[in-house]
Specification:
Elements lengths: L15 E2 L5 H8 L4 E5 L5 E4 L1 H7 L3 H4 L25 H8 L3 E8 L5 E12 L5 E10 L3 H13 L12 H14 L7 E8 L2 H8 L1 H17 L6 E6 L2 E7 L3 H16 L3 E3 L2 E3 L3 E7 L6 H17 L5 E4 L1
Parallel strand pairs: 1-5, 12-13
Antiparallel strand pairs: 2-3, 2-6, 4-5, 5-6, 7-9, 7-12, 8-9, 10-11
Length: 318
């Protein structure tokens, strides 16, 4: 039985020793679901497997020969700090020889942010000298749960046709179900509402098609970075709503802040120009006496407080 590093349970991850090349090993690595890439001492990418292509959207032809220092994947932590230029776990591992495992958010070729668990190991030659590094990363966005939910939404005609997430009808039904549950702990939930800042101006400047691409990017970023028991949907226009389950106030506020940072750090390239947007957030927790109308009205007012406070911020009311 293998552990998360592909080793027998109970065995720690060793540094990798390069013993030669061969098509067998390349075929083996391409068969993994995880992304795997190798770098030389100058951080130039020398191998990029099919798992890395699937998770990032970048083909091997686009990245092999480039340096990971070029910020291709633009790894950031949950505070938005850029790790490719400062604090790279792979660089640290190549300096110290120590295996590292961290959770980060990579930049997909389509623009959205994907949560990944990164594991870095040193690559050594037969004499034990460090001659590079290998990084493996695993998609942490609960894709299987997402696929199941998407299948359900398609069957029930509850899918937003543009963004591929839940539509307003599904969100309304979800809220009605949450209120029907009642009780104390299992009935406690919250709402996060966000609105893309200056979207009309963005649409006018770059065109309707690019505006739609931005909405898709924002939708993917927030949906991939919520949990399987949260419901993410498009409320209308450039507004999105998240029904947050199993969380108290501080957890809802923290999630909203992480999503705000990840939206700000997402970007897409159109005609050679890198485009990004920010979003304003409102967040609240259900209160005794609330119904769907009072709860959504309150979170909407909190959202507009963020707009009035300068945008690209979270206003929370517990």
């Amino acid at each position: 039985m293998l552990n998360g590093d592909g080793l027998p349970v109970g065995q720690e991850a060793p540094d990798i020793v390069v013993q030669g090349e061969g098509g067998f090993y390349e075929e083996l690595l391409n068969g993994l679901d995880d992304g795997v890439y190798f770098v030389d001492p100058m951080r130039r990418i020398t191998f990029w497997n099919q798992g890395a292509e699937r998770i990032t959207g970048y083909s091997a032809a686009e990245v092999v020969g480039c340096s990971c220092a070029d910020n291709i994947l633009m790894h950031v932590d949950d505070k938005g700090k850029c790790l490719c230029t400062s604090g790279c776990p792979l660089v640290s591992t190549m300096k110290t020889g120590k295996h590292r495992s961290v959770n980060v958010f990579l930049h997909h070729k389509d623009g959205h942010r994907v949560p990944v668990n990164v594991r870095a190991s040193a690559v050594r030659d037969s004499s034990g000298r460090i001659i590079g590094g290998v990084e493996t990363f695993r998609d942490g966005s609960l894709q299987q749960a997402d696929l199941h939910r998407i299948c359900e939404l398609k069957q029930l005609v509850f899918l937003d046709s543009l963004t591929g997430i839940a539509n307003r009808r599904y969100l309304d039904n979800t809220l009605s179900s949450r209120f029907a549950e009642g009780g104390d702990d299992h009935g406690r939930f919250g709402l996060i509402m966000l609105d893309v800042d200056h979207f009309k101006r963005f649409n006018d400047e770059y065109g309707h098609e690019t505006g739609e691409q931005v909405l898709e990017m924002v939708a993917r970023t927030i949906s991939k970075n919520c949990r399987s028991f949260d419901t993410v949907g498009r409320w209308g226009g450039e507004e999105f709503l998240i029904v947050v389950g199993r969380s108290k106030g501080e957890g809802i506020q923290e999630l909203a802040e992480i999503l705000r940072v990840l939206v700000e750090k997402s970007s897409l390239t159109v005609d050679g120009q890198v485009l990004s947007v920010t979003a304003s957030f409102g967040a609240t927790v259900v209160r005794p006496g609330d119904d769907t109308h009072s709860l959504t009205e309150r979170v909407n007012q909190l959202l507009y407080q963020s707009k009035e406070s300068g945008r690209n911020c979270v206003t929370f009311d517990d």
